[in-house]
Every structure is written in C-alpha cells, then in structure tokens.
Amino acid sequence: MAQLTIRDLYDLLSQAPRRRDLEQDGIRLVYDGTAVHLSTADQPDTVIATARTCGHVTGAWDVTAYTASLASVMAWMRMLDGENLIDLAPASIIHVRAPAW
Q1: How far apart are CA 98 and CA 101, in angstroms?
Q2: What's phi and psi for 42, nearest 5 deg?
Q3: What's this model's pTM, rounded to 2 decimal places?
Q4: Cα torsion at 33, 47, 11, 78 (round to 10°)?
Q5: Given the DSSP bridges, would you call strands 85-88 and 35-40 parallel, antiparallel or unpaired?
Q6: pLDDT digits (tens, 9 = 90+) for 6-54
Q7: DSSP letters along 6-71, please?
C-alpha cells in the first residue's frame, strides 16, 4: 500500500496519456517504497510522472490499469478534500482516510 494525498494522486493520474494515443491500452503504476511512478503498458520503462508518498510504508508493488477507468476515478477524487491521505494498493479499493480531529 502507498499513502499519498488525494491531490498528488489526482495530479499523477492527470498526466496519463489518452487511450487513443497508446499502442496498448493501460497505464502502469509502480510503487518502490517511497514514490508512485506512472508509465504506460506499452512503454513500462519510461516514467511519465512521479508522486511522492507519505505516511505508512509497505513493500513495493506494481499494477496495470485500463485508462478507461481513470475518468470516473478522477471525477470522484475531484469531490474530495485534496489534502486527505488516500491508500493506494493493487487489487483493492482506494481508501480515503478521514482527517484526525
């Protein structure tokens, strides 16, 4: 799992190329323990953007997602407070952490 602010994740995903600009549909997210790196499925070694993580640290992971699913996720994130932390992990739901009062 990687923790980062909703704003940082939104900014990262907004740099993903459009599906029609890709040879193979999909974006790749790679977490190395300190940052989440964005690349494409057809060029996985070319990093397009990076977002630093904060908070809880886990082991490294990577996941490939269809670009078609990004629009609805990004629309949902626009409704949230950008400073809240979000948990990002492969094969799970994105969890939003409520601010500590």
Answers
A1: 9
A2: -85, -15
A3: 0.78
A4: -90
A5: unpaired
A6: 899 999 989 988 877 777 778 889 999 899 999 988 889 999 999 999 8
A7: HHHHHHHHTTSPPGGG-SSS-EEEEE-SSEEEEEESSSTTS--EEEE--S-B---EEEEE-GGGHH
Is 50:38 a contact under the CB 8 Å cutoff? yes
Q: Could you tell me which residue, 97 or 68, shows the higher pLDDT?
A: 68
Tokens encoding 57:
């640290």
Return the structure tokens found at 45: 């070694």
Q: What contacts 24+ positions apart, CB below 8 Å, involve 69-78?
A: 70/13, 70/16, 70/27, 73/13, 74/10, 74/13, 74/14, 77/6, 77/9, 77/10, 78/10
Structure tokens at 3: 């923790």
pLDDT, tens only, 63-82? 888 776 777 778 888 888 88
